[in-house]
Amino acid sequence: MPDASTTDVYRFAASMVRRYGRDAVLVAELQADILLGRSDMDGYRTWKRVELVADELLAAEAPDSSPLH
């Protein structure tokens, strides 16, 4: 997903959250690490964006009464 638009990243992150739940952030982080190991900086940056957006989406879904870490 190189050169992904912001809309694409948000859509993909949302699909990751639906598929993996709270593990979506970890899955995206692992993908980013794999691509970094392959020196694929475009892919790495895209997956890091997906990771951050997935984290934001999950934080927005947390109920108000949930404890903060």
Polypeptide structure, described:
This protein is mainly α. The protein has one domain (6-60). 72% of the residues lie in helices and 0% in strands. The protein has three helices and no strands. The longest helix is centred in the last third of the chain and has 21 residues, at 41-61. The mean pLDDT is 90.
In short:
The chain is an all-alpha fold and about 70 residues long. It has helices at about 5-20, 25-35, 40-60. The protein has one domain.
Present the secondary structure layout.
Elements: H1 6-20, H2 24-37, H3 41-61
Helix pairs in contact: 1-2, 1-3, 2-3
Brief descriptors of the model:
single chain; 69 residues; mainly alpha
Largest sheet, in brief, is: none
Determine the N-to-C terminus distance.
Answer: 32 Å
**Low-pLDDT sequence parts:** none
Number of helices, counting only DSSP H or I runs of 4 residues or more: 3
By secondary-structure content and strand pairing, the structural class works out as mainly alpha
| Portion of residues within helices | over 70%
Per the principal axes of the C-alpha atoms, what is the gross shape?
A: globular
Strand tally: 0
What's the overall average pLDDT, rounded? 90
Order of helices and strands: HHH
Number of domains as seen in the coordinates: 1
Calculate Rg over CA atoms: 13 Å
Strand-residue fraction?
Answer: under 5%
